[in-house]
Amino acid sequence: MKKGALLNGDVSAVIARLGHTDHITVADAGLPIPPATPRIDLALTQGVPDFMSVFKVITQEMQVEAALMAEDIQTHNSELHDAIVAHLKALELQQGNVIQIQYVTHASFKLQTQNSRAVIRTGECTPFANVMLFSGVTF
């Protein structure tokens, strides 16, 4: 049995296969997922598991170089936005690198999920609770 915090085999496998600049998307329950993009569905019911619980475990396992969010999260879900940014700032210190945070329109964000190695669907049911995490290197 794996000793780390991330026990989900599908999520662990997709992170292990990431190369530099590849990305995954951590999504709320409502984000449309393109048919050709692999879906890892963790949602059980509304709010379970919540976005931040999934996001925190994934970032313990993944070297993060950049993050992308829909600009709407800043105004329509500012509490979650602030929690994501605070976690990424703490992660910078832990990893010893700068994590670039960028914003795009929600329409552009949805289009870019087509290039995600996987979309990890949470049970989060708050607006714009989605982030793309771009893989860095540990050396």
From TrEMBL:
The UniProt entry, under InterPro entries, shows:
D-ribose_pyranase, RbsD-like_sf, RbsD_FucU
Q: What class of enzyme is it?
A: isomerase
| GO terms of molecular function | D-ribose pyranase activity; intramolecular lyase activity; monosaccharide binding
One GO CC annotation: cytosol
Note the Pfam families from the entry. RbsD_FucU
Which GO terms fall under biological process for this protein?
Answer: D-ribose catabolic process
Q: What is the active site of this protein?
A: H20
Which key words are in the record?
Carbohydrate metabolism, Cytoplasm, Isomerase
Q: Indicate where this protein is primarily found.
A: cytoplasm
Q: In which pathway does this enzyme or protein participate?
A: Carbohydrate metabolism; D-ribose degradation; D-ribose 5-phosphate from beta-D-ribopyranose: step 1/2
Reactions this protein catalyses: beta-D-ribopyranose = beta-D-ribofuranose
List the subcellular locations: Cytoplasm
UniProt: substrate binding residues: D28, H106, F128, A129, N130
Superkingdom classification of source: Bacteria
Enzyme Commission (EC) number: 5.4.99.62
Subunit note: Homodecamer.
Extract the PANTHER family matched here.
D-RIBOSE PYRANASE
The protein's role, per its UniProt record: Catalyzes the interconversion of beta-pyran and beta-furan forms of D-ribose.
What is stated as this protein's family in its record?
Answer: Belongs to the RbsD / FucU family. RbsD subfamily.
> How is this protein named in the record?
D-ribose pyranase
Q: Which organism is it from?
A: Morganella morganii subsp. morganii KT
Gene this protein is translated from: rbsD
